[in-house]
Structures are given as C-alpha cells and as structure tokens.
Amino acid sequence: MTRSRFSSFLYVLSVLLLAGCGGGGGSDSPAPTTPPAPVNNAPSISGTPATSVDEGSGYSFAPSAADADGDSLTFSVTNLPAWASFNAETGEISGTPSREHAGSYPDISISVSDGSLSRALPGFTVQVLAVRNITLAGKATDAPLVNAQVTTTVGQREFSASTDAQGNYSLPIVLRDTEYQPEDLLTLKARGTGEQTHIELISQVASFESLIEMASSEEQLAAGQWHRLNLTQLSTAKYLLASDKNNGSAATTYSLLEDLEEAVDAECIQTLSGLIKLLADHTAYPVPENKTTLSLWQNDENSTWEAAILWLNEQGLRDTDGNYAPTFALDLQEAITTTLNDSDVVPAITDEDLIGVHIIADAPQQGYVPSSGEVLELRADGSGTAYIEADKGGDLDAHQFEFSWIRDGNSVSLTFPERVEKESFSRSLNRETGSYSYQILADEYGFGQEVVNNVTANDDKIIWRPYLRRQTHTQTFQLMPNTNGYIWLAGEHQVSYRLDIPTGFVAGYLPEESPVSVKTLGIDKQLYVKVQEGLSEFEGSLANGQWALPVLYRLPWYEGTSFATQVTENENFHQDIVEVNGLPTTAELSQQQVIAEALSHQIKLTVGNDQYQYIPFASNDLLYAVLVNYSVGGELDKRVVRWMSKVNKPDDALSQITSEMITELPLGWRAVSQSHFGYWKSSEYNGDGLLIYDHLYVYQLEENNGLKVIDRDPYADISAPRFRVSEIYGDGSWEVNTDGKLVLGKDFYDSTTGLLKGYRFRYWTLLGGNEQDYLVIEEVKWFDDWNENGEIDPLEDGYLVFPHLKWLKKTDLSQWQEAWANTNLD
Q1: Which residues of 140-275 form beta strands (DSSP E)?
Q2: Taking the domains of the chain in order of start, what are their residue ranges?
Q3: Each residue of 460-478: pLDDT tens digit?
Q4: I want to staple 551 with a disulfide (CB 3.0 to 4.6 A). Which of 116, 438, 576, 611 is the partner?
C-alpha cells in the first residue's frame, strides 16, 4: 500500500515539472549550451629513405613531419644501426659506415609524436655496400708497349689506363660488392698504338676477390707480388693454349684456369711465346693486315696451335716434315731464350726456391695426376740426390744417383758422376718377313750404320730383346715458375748410349759392346716444387678413414712357368687397403699389422720397423699423386711416386655395377693407367686427324654378364683407323664373387686347333667413384700352358700380377669420329 502511493506521487511531480519546462504564454529564449572539447589530430610523417650507402660515404635521411594542431613534435627510432646517430628533434638519421659495417640493417623505423598520438614511417632497410678499391700495377712488354691502352672488365664495368714509355701501367678499380661476383676472373688486355698497333697482349690474372685479399689494407698490388699482372708474350701464349683445352673458350674461374694451364704442353708454350715475340719485334715477320699478335691465332676452325702451324707453313717457315727454315729456327730460338731469361716475362727464381724435394713428371692434362716421376733432392751445399725408378717387369728397381747442381739465372744444371740406367728401344717389325729393323739405332740414338747392319743381319740369332745402357752426364733445365706451385721445364739431357745384347740369350756372334753414342735429349716435363710441404687442403678429417695406400710387400709372381721352375716373388709398392685412425689394424690385402695416422698434410704408416710417409702433391679430388718416403729403422731407404685414394666401397657391389658401370657401345670404361709405374697417356686426334694414343683399352660390361674389351686395330690402314674387340682380352664375362669383387674372365683358344690355351681373370675391388670416374684395385691371375705339357694346371701354370690402383673413366668411342665410323663391333 505505501509503495503504490509513493509511485503515484512521483508521477504527478514529474508531470508538473515537464509542464513547467514547456513554457508559458509568450516567446521564451533557448537555454545556453556547453561547447565540445577540441579534437587532437595525429601528426603526419613522410619521406623516402635511401636504402644503400657505400662504405666511407655519409648517409643522411630526415623525414618530413607536420601537425595540423600546431603541437610540438618529437621523434624516435627503433633498430638504429650502430654506425648511425639520431636527432630526436628533427628525426634525422646520419652517419658514415666503415668497412666493418658492411651488411644489411633491416626494419629501421622512425616515429613522430605530438605527446599523445604518434605515426611511423614503414620500416626500411639500409644496405652498407663494401667498396673495393684496388690499384693494379704492372707492365705490358716485350718490348715495352708505349702509350698502350690496358683494359679490364669486372662485372659489367670496364676500367682502363695508359702505359708510360717503359710499358708500365697503374690501373685503379673501384667496385661495389653488388657489381661483381667474388669468383669473377679478371683478364687484362693491352693494345699498342702507332707502330705497335699490331701488338695485342693478354693475361688472365686471378679472381677479383683474391686480388683484393692479396692487396690487403694497402689497396695496391704490383707485378712483383703477383706476376700475372704483367702482360707479355708468355701470358698471351698461356691464355691462347689454355683456351684450346676448354674448347676455345677462356677460363671463367681461377681454379679452372689452373687446370687448363696445367694441361698445356710446355714446348707449345715456349714456341708460341717465341713466335709472338718475333711478330711483335721483328720486321722480317710481319703480322697480316687487320690482325694482331693475339687475334692471328684465334678462329673458329682451328686451335691456336693448328693456326700457328698453318701460318708457319703458309709463310714457308716450316716444311711438311715439321722442320723450320734455318734462319727462322735461329731467330725463334733466340726469341725463346730471351723470353725465358726476361724477369718481366718469367719470374726470377733463387737458390732458396730450389732447395728441397721436387718431382719431375710428365705434364698431365686437365683433371689428371701423374703416377710416376723422378724425385730430386737439392741441398744448400750444391749437392743432391736423384731417386730414379726403372720399369723392370713389375719388380721394384729403384736407384739413387748423387749429383752436383748450379743455378744460372732461371737455368739449373745437374752433373752426375755416375748415372747408368737400362733403356729399351722400339724395333719396327716387318710383318711380311717377320724380321725386325734396327735403323732406329742410327736415326734416333746416333750409332753408326755398321752397328745397325751387324745387328740386323743377326736378328734371327737374338732370342731376347736387346736394350741400351744409358749414361746421363748432365741435365740442364730452363725453369718457368708458375703461380700455382709448379715449374714448367725446358732443357736438355746430355747422355751417351751403349748397345747391350745379353750374351746368355744369343746363339752366335754379336758384339757384347757397341760404340758409345752421345746424344742431346730435349725434355718436356713438369716440376712439382717443395713437395715435402704437401697439399694444404689435405688435413685431419679428410685424411682419416679407409685408404688405398701403396705398401712394400712381397707376392708370388710366376708359378712353375717356363721362365722359372719354382715360385718366385715380386717385391714392390703394391696397393693395400688400410684404416687410417692411429690404431693398430690389419691391412686388408697384405694382412700385415700396421698403424696408420693422419698428420699435417700427409699420412704416416708404421709396419714393424718400417715407416712410410705419404705426401700428396697433386690431386683431382679422386686420386692423389703422392711422394712415398720409405724408411727402415729411421733411415730413408727409398723414394718413389705413387697414387693413393680414399676408399668408399659399395655396400652392394652387384647393385653398384648394375646402376653405374654397365654400358652400351659406344660407351665403355677406359683404364687411364695400366700399372703403378706407367704414366697415364691421352687418346686424341693429331693435327692430321688421325687417331693417336698409347693405351686405349675400353671395358664394356654388358647387362647379360658379357664383357668386351676394345682397343685400336693395329692392322687397320693408317688412313682409316678403326676399333676392334681386343685379341688379347677379347670377349669374356663378368660376375661378382663371394668376396664382393668384380671378376672379369677371358678364355684363350688356339687359333689352329681350337683347343683351350689359357684363361685370365681380373679381380677388381671396387673403391668407389661416380658415373663418370671409378677407382678399383686390380689383381690379375693369368693361366696358360707355360710349360707346354698340353694341360693348364693352375698350380704350375699361373702368372700373377700384383694389386695396383686402376682409374677408370667413362669414354665415348664415337668422339674419334673417323675410327668409329670405320668400326663394326656387332
């Protein structure tokens, strides 16, 4: 009751109040209002900052900011680079980054505030660009190019400088990081002016990044520090001949350049260098119109060397037999000698450069490593030792010869008091008469015709091959240092020969000693310097693991053959498989107890009282050429050159063979080296387009376990070369035995009776590789009816070949187009 009365009262009161607010009679004014509070507008900010700055250059960016309300503004920043400062009143970022600040600085954000509200620019990134400054200094010679333009292109930018009266140039180069690739190979060109317009020289120097590193903080690099900065006839010859090895294209990286130059024949380098010098300096040998000493040898049809030979023939300076015209020959030799003795062209060497252990080996082609060579140790007192290994049917035949040495400029001479070695020589066989010709003794070795006639007349009485005893008196080398650690050699050996026909194998009279013949031999070799330092990349983690190493041990050789009535043994550095981990272990093939450990740049192996040092001096990432120092009781006993390789055996040999080694013609696997002491030989066309090679045995493993071994057909006409299935190796088969070895088998039959004459097995231990290159350790067992009893008894008629490392390369026989076109192997 009370709540209801109170509600009614409120209702009446509200009505009265509303009526009062509605006004009474007359015109009443509106009631006054309160103005709204002012609205605060956020400030605005704008601007486009620079996103990069060179090191050493100033950077500045100040945004534009405003406030519609006229409020005071303050600025702030996040992610400010360490090299920059910030002005909170203006919002400016400024600073000068140095080289150590090079890099990217992301998400920089500048904000402006009126005290209540703020706005920010979108985040931005500033890239500090490293600027590479370097001044290259060298010489364009020989003779000096005066006022010549020296140019180079790095990335997309070209730089140039002029030479002075002595041919010297100073070439500044300034580049940002973004304007080049670190591996870009810098190439210098120089073109003469006036009377020297026909002279154009070139030199591939190094990667731009490596030049920067060599210059260091000095930002200057001169030819005295890096000889390739000199543009010469030698650098031009190297450029042209190296490009030949790359299908006519110049190298694009320094590592490729080194490989290509390593593949160039030293004699070609010397000859072309001398020829370029003659054309540059000698008016008697003018350069054709519109050609230069560089462009003359460049065309799409011929290699540089072919172009040089063609030009010489056209000028009448060389005959069809390859002999130079007498006057030209003298001029060319003088130009070569001048080239090799000019310190601006060829870096000067010192005695210190020569003191140490060196290896002389055949200069390999791109991607190859030597498998043998002479080892020379030159000592500071002028004495030295040559470690020479001879081929003696697989038995180790290592000799040491003392010598004295002297250097004259870039030439070094070795004099041997007593160095006598056995040398075989090639006799040409007359297939119609079955007799041999010994004319080579006169033509190549200087013997008189009377000796040749006497030996030829008694050829039917010689039942064992005669040979020569070669005495080396002096070796003279002209040295050409190169930047990748080896020296090209050109020089002569002064030797004398004595014909030696063992009387034990002669039925009848022949002279036991023939007149001594003196002959000067030219050489074309490569000298690996400071071998004892090893390869810098050959370190601990790489060296640890399983390796195929050459180890000195004895194996059976002949068993009950007509050459020996009892088992004989062969001792040599046979290949073995060893775990390199510093712990005692058993070598896989020889079963010797060994300890092998990885040291700095080498592997050390201990077998009882014997120790081996394996020092790698050349590599193609698959094989290592190594100097083997073999010591007994701490005393050095032998030094030889061999191969070694890391072992990566397949878990499933059959699967590996099926997936990688089975091929179809014209593809097959070519054995690069046939034995541990043999040099690898290349197979290619000569200048006349004919097939030339030494060893070309191509193994073709077929899916049905068939085997073909293909070589050159020696009975083919020389004008129509062709391949054949080898008579020696022929058709055979392959299988994987229980030891996981690949066994290649071949049976031999008598061509007259058709009866089994013998059989041969090759056992390959697969060491690993890829679809193009593969390594195996090969062992051979050859069984024949040696004792001619009409039966093949493995216990009496066996012939064993010791384990050796064989390098297989996948080869396309059709690359020798003419020979392949003449071949039918179906």
Answers
A1: 149-154, 157-162, 168-176, 185-191, 200-207, 220-222
A2: 44-129, 132-340, 351-533, 540-646, 653-821
A3: 766 566 778 889 999 988 8
A4: 576
